[in-house]
Amino acid sequence: MSAPLLQVNDLKKHFPVRGGLFSRKSNWVYAVDGVSFEVERGETLSLVGESGCGKSTVGRAILRLFDITAGQVVLDGQRIDDLSPGGLRSMRRRVQVVFQDPFSSLNPRMRVRDILAEPIRNFGLAKSAAELDAKVAALVDTVRLPRDALGRRPHEFSGGQRQRIGIARALAAEPELIVCDEAVSALDVSVKAQIVNLLQDLQREFGLALLFISHDLAVVEHMTHRVAVMYLGKIVEMAGRQQIFTAPRHPYTKALLSAVPVPEPGAIRNPIILKGDVPSPINPPSGCRFHTRCPFVFDRCRTEEPELRSTEDGQWVACHLKALPEAPGPAH
Amino acid sequence: MALLEVDNLQTHFRTPEGINRAVDGVSFHVDEGETLAIVGESGCGKSVTSMSLMRLIAEPPGRIAGSIRFQGKELLQLSEREMRAIRGNDISMIFQEPMTSLNPVLTVGRQIGETLRMHQGLDKQGAEARAIEMLTLVGIPEPVRRVREYPHQLSGGMRQRVMIAMALACNPKLLIADEPTTALDVTIQAQILQLMLGLKRRVGAAIVLITHDLGVVAEIAERVMVMYAGRKVEEAPVTELFRSPRHPYTQGLLGAVPKLGSSLTGAARRLAEIPGQVPSLKGRIEGCVFAGRCSLATDLCRQVAPGLEEKGPRHIAACHYARKEAAAA
Question: Domain ABC transporter, which positions (chain A) (predicted)?
Fold first, then answer.
């Protein structure tokens, strides 16, 4: 078996917090603190978690939008976290991104034609002007926008159509991996369904790998292959779609799933209501980071940090408990 | 008599490109102690409807017509001064974004106390004592310390709790909650929904819940009204609506929502799409507002706007073909 497309080993990203006199570095935000995972070719791995868990920071670290603090990012067997700016160019073609907000991630002064032609020209993917035009036109068809969209500017489109432009721009570079950072979160229900379906079709058509960063668990369950659940800068559980959604092993995953309102009135649910808020990543709790909110906390959790270990059925869990007590109700 | 009766509400805005008919002839009622959810996507007019109820629409460029009767009193004929006596006292509101709807330079206690001092004539000490009581009620730990804090010192969930405390301080008869949990994380959303349900039982206020999240609707609403492009297209009790939606838009909306538990049924399936986009509200729409995206649409739909017809017990929908569709299904 060949190496996975993307390998992330013990990734850390700490941001300095400046404050006090002369803006001295006074503290660190431990945004991502030791995260490892792999993404196979043609696979969707979803990073889920609540605001501040570090999921977007992981995505940005892979895109090299900033330098990482520690760890390795390996694309197709080659380390990319320490590449020179020149070396980064070819990696940038292979890893593209679709952002959450289609309003602020498209240049309002450019026509759609130029937005899509730029990456093709940049990476020298077209040999002639005619080929460039043909590629741009094909992209517009691929994301199911009308051909006359090419001459228009982003403000003339609705949110869903702009997200299609953003996806087309990512595809223009002919990438192998697309990082979707909350790519459907800002969209309305009916439009969201259109974009989710489009992403699934494109994945099948081009064999794309997707790193799907989202807080919307129902969308994730619908389209992912594997899921990594993050909490305060760490992965607490990672497993296949069905394992995570039907038999979560970590108390946080279980609580997260049970908190999602189900569009079915009168459904019998027994949500685990977590107490309090997510602690600050500036000063994360000792031991297990979830211990301040965990319904099953015991002494060991407060002092000793549980490792992410694999269970016999290939599920990765970071919890001292061997099995979850039945107490606060089922996840579904 | 219902607590709130809205009849043919029309809220239009004058824009350089023409008149925007944000809400175009919407009628509904809310009974005492009842929870009515208004659902729809961006631009369907649900938020403008809620702002109109409170008369928070700037006139001009906006213009509210029709009738809004609260406890039999016509709100649209009240002076601004009379309206102020109702806002925050009889009808109060929770907004989506607690950070922008709280005043950053005043303490939380002062903001909760303001309504009490204005409407109930409490003095400074009395208002603070009641503010602490309200913070305790909405489950904020250490209320005595928190009451002296500023909004930026609180987390998102706590700020929303403060908003709820503020809205309930004067024991309103009607609470309008405009996307109260949309900006919150799911675990915090679960806390806030549980809080709202608990408080509703204790305080007995009627709630108008504005949301796009059908999960939240199923969780706390009793009756649901679906809006599309400024009009009401369907209304029914919550179980009835989810079980047998009659309007093609409602059916499309329910089909487009991915539901948890999809991995139990095996491989991923495609979500139902509603093709196309919401029509522009500038300029009058002839016929049914949904005709452009509807698979059942005929020439009749494009020419004649369907009226709201009874399709079942307490179940109305605005569609020429709705009954046929339900029978076929």
Answer: 6-257
The ipTM (two decimal places) reads 0.78
Q: What is the dihedral of CA A166, A171, A173, A175, to 10 degrees?
A: 120
Tracing tokens 């970590």 back to the chain, one arrives at A250
Q: Say yes or no to pLDDT of A22 above 60.
A: yes
Residues with Cβ within 8 Å of B91's Cβ and at least 6 positions away in sequence, in order, are B53, B54, B70, B172, B173, B174, B175, B176
Strands A78-79 vs A209-214: parallel, antiparallel or unpaired? unpaired
CA distance B297 to A165: 29
Write out the two tokens for B240.
């009835």
Q: For chain B, what is the domain count? A: 1
Strands A209-214 and A177-181: parallel
Q: Rounded to a whole number, what is the distance in angstroms from the first to the last CA of chain B?
A: 36
Tens digit of each residue's pLDDT (9 = 90 or more) over A118-129: 999 999 998 899
Residue A270: predicted pLDDT? 77
In a domain, B264, yes or no: no
Q: How far is CA B183 from CA A251, A277, B95, B154, B178, in A?
A: 24, 14, 10, 15, 11
Residues written for chain A: 332
In-domain check, residue B312: yes
pLDDT (mean) for A265-275: 79
- Collect all residues of chain B within an 8 Å Cβ-Cβ radius of residue A261: 189-190, 193, 213, 215-216, 218-219
Q: Domain residues of chain A, as ranges?
A: 6-19+27-252
pLDDT for the residue numbered B327: 46
Q: What's the pLDDT score for residue B157?
A: 81
Question: What value does the mean pLDDT take over residues A209-234?
Answer: 93
Q: Flag the least confident range among A56-60, A121-125, B121-125, B280-284.
A: B280-284
Radius of gyration from C-alpha coordinates of chain A = 21
pLDDT at B268: 57
A330 or A236, which is more confident: A236
Range of lowest pLDDT (A248-262, B44-58, B275-289): B275-289
B296 found inside a domain: yes
Q: What is the pLDDT of residues A76-86, one digit of tens each?
A: 988 988 888 88
Q: How many CA atoms lie within 13 A of B104 on its CB side?
A: 3
Task: State whether residue A95 is helix, strand or coil.
Answer: strand
- Domain range enclosing B67: 1-82+214-258+280-329
The CATH number for A6-19+27-252, chosen from 2.30.42.10, 3.40.190.10, 3.40.50.300, 3.30.430.20, is: 3.40.50.300
Mutation for testing the B interface, residue in A262, A264, A278 having most B CBs under 10 Å: A264
Residues of A in contact with B187 (CB under 8 A): 50, 255-256, 259, 273-274
pTM, full prediction = 0.84
CB within 8 A of A86, min separation 6: which ones?
Answer: none
Point out the residue among A188, A222, A277 whose CB comes nearest to the CB of B41. Answer: A188
* Residue type at A312 in one-letter notation: E
Question: What's residue A264's pLDDT?
Answer: 84
Contact B157 A262 (CB under 8 A): no
Residues 106-125, chain A, touching B (beta carbon < 8 A): none
